[in-house]
Amino acid sequence: MDDASLLNVVLYLPVAGMALLLAVPAGQDGRVRWLTFWVMVVQLALTAVLYAHFNPAVPGLQFETRVPWIPDWGVHYQIGLDGYNVLLVLLTAFLGPLVVAGAFTAITKDVKLFYSMVLLIQFAMLGTFVAQDLFVFYIFWETMLIPMFLLIGIWGGERRIYATIKFFLYTAFGSILMLAAVIYLVYSLQTTTGVTSFAFADLYESRLPLSTQIVLLAAFGLSFAIKVPMVPLHTWLPDAHVEAPTAGSVILAGVLLKMGTYGFMKLGFPLFPDATHYFTPAIMTLSVISIVYGACLALVQNDIKKIIAYSSISHLGYVMLGLISLDLIGIQGAIVQMVSHGLTAAGLFLMVGMIYERCHTRELSAYGGLAKLLPVYSVFFMILTLASIGLPTTSGFTGEFLVLLGSFTASWPLHVQGNSYPLAMSALAVTGVVLGALYMLRFAQSFLFGVSKAPHLPLSDLDLREKLILVAIVVAVFALGLFPDEPLQKTELAAKQYQQIVRTARMPGSAQ
Fold it and tell me: Is the N end or the C end of the chain the one with fewer CB atoms within 10 Å?
């Protein structure tokens, strides 16, 4: 089997898994769980093979499949790996078995339907990352809504219907605007070049006037910003996280939020580079507001899921800052930060689910003294807390340091840039690091230390399944923190391409 065929196998393995689940007789929930788990493990192993074969010295797509789908419309089934998506595909495949294993004891109703939805959203997320045709991308993008809608709506908490409707309305509104922009973009390409195509590579070559780019980037950007989410489009996220089952929260924080930042990096900014320059001050401002405001909101929460949810807004603000810096170091840092946040947030949400199964409460004030009651649990929790803060040797440090370094490099020296605003925004972003340490250490102090709460006695520490899940995440966190060179090499050419496309755009105002 060649590598292009192998990528198709990786993509469609969850669909095959769903078909296998249909053959499992009713009532055999254990078989359903283990079958889904092994499908995800095989997918991870095959993805690791693709990652190992990915050549960082080769620009453009690798393992590409491109066949006509709707030729009259210029639509091709086109998928492939490049430096933009290779780490995110690996992250998605890595979290798959952990999500499944983490739900073994938490999900007891409609088990077959639940794991079918997990497989479906895995398929949709991977398809969104590997799609290289805008039509195919949009189909996968919309498909993600269905399983997440059901995961929250069926297996969520008491206010699951409210959270589900809010999530759907926000994301559907952004998707409708993006669909209109997609149609207009392809029509514009056809009228100016005579070529009808949805391929990313062809659309990058379109030359639209600034006024048109502004409108189209606003439409694409709104859809992506909702998914990130950026302030002030963030209000759906805490409700979705609080009401979602643990598996839903892990998928949402670990992978789904990265769809927004990936969309900006792969489509939004490169497709409309002039408009990107035009909107740079606004995007930079909203990124820093998201960093600081998200951290401040996390600082005052009592629901432990909301603390992690608001921290996600803050961490992904760094990703947006790195992307809009247009500095190679900052862009590389943004990609690493996406992966790092996916690991640490997924790990923390899994740990919230583990303690919730034991204590049946998410109120921070109800906890205390867990370091004595659950020492193994507490060690893992502190490791992931420090990684989220950005302790050196962890992936969090690598991502945030590179983003901040790239942001400062892009805005300094002042006598060259002639504008102190980017430097001021970069300096303000550093306060997010301080606030991040403040809210996470407050969280850990209240959660793990202090007086033990009697209602929680007795408690059992982590079992073997839970330990293995957390060991896998912790190993990945330190591997990316200590040995970032190879991942950075695999993304370097894509980061340079992104930088070249956007940075060398015409100056705003010159395009009419």
Answer: C
Amino acid letter, 470 = L
Distance separating alpha carbons of residues 43 and 483, to the nearest angstrom: 24
Model confidence pLDDT, tens digit, residues 136-150: 999 999 999 999 999
Question: Closest Cα to residue 77, out of 140, 155, 2, 14?
Answer: 140
- Percent of the chain past pLDDT 70, that is, above it, reads 96
Report how far residue 206's alpha carbon sits from residue 173's, in angstroms, rounded to the nearest whole number: 26
Closest by alpha carbon to 288, among 422, 405, 397, 410? 422
Q: What's the pTM value of the predicted model, to 2 decimals? A: 0.92
Return the structure tokens found at 439.
Answer: 């809210």
Amino acid code (one letter) for 371: A
pLDDT digits (tens, 9 = 90+) for 10-66: 999 999 999 999 999 888 999 999 999 999 999 999 999 999 999 999 988 999 999
Say if strands 62-70 and 75-81 run parallel, antiparallel, or are unpaired. antiparallel
For residue 503, the surrounding DSSP H or E stretch is: helix 485-503
Maximal C-alpha separation, the chain: 73
* DSSP per position, 439-498: HHHHHHHHHHSSSPPGGG-S-----HHHHHHHHHHHHHHHHHHH--HHHHHHHHHHHHHH
| Residue 269, pLDDT score | 93
Beta pairing partners, 363: 303
Distance separating alpha carbons of residues 243 and 239, to the nearest angstrom: 6
Residue 196 is encoded by which pair of tokens?
Answer: 């009808």
Phi, psi of 394 (to 5 degrees): -100, 165
Could you give the 3-state DSSP secondary structure of residue 78? Answer: strand
Which residues, in sequence order, are CB contacts of 162 under 8 Å at separation 6+?
Answer: 239, 243
pLDDT tens track for 166-198: 988 898 888 898 999 999 999 888 888 778 889
Beta bridge partners of 185: none
**pLDDT tens digits, one per residue of 229-243:** 899 988 898 888 888
CA distances from 361 to 242, 251, 364 (A): 11, 21, 8
Is the predicted pLDDT of residue 509 greater than 80, yes or no?
no
The structure tokens 């202090």 sit at 450
**Looking at the DSSP assignment, which residues form a beta bridge with residue 222?**
none
272: left (phi over 0), alpha (psi -120 to 50) or beta: beta
In the block, residue with structure tokens 């643990």? 246
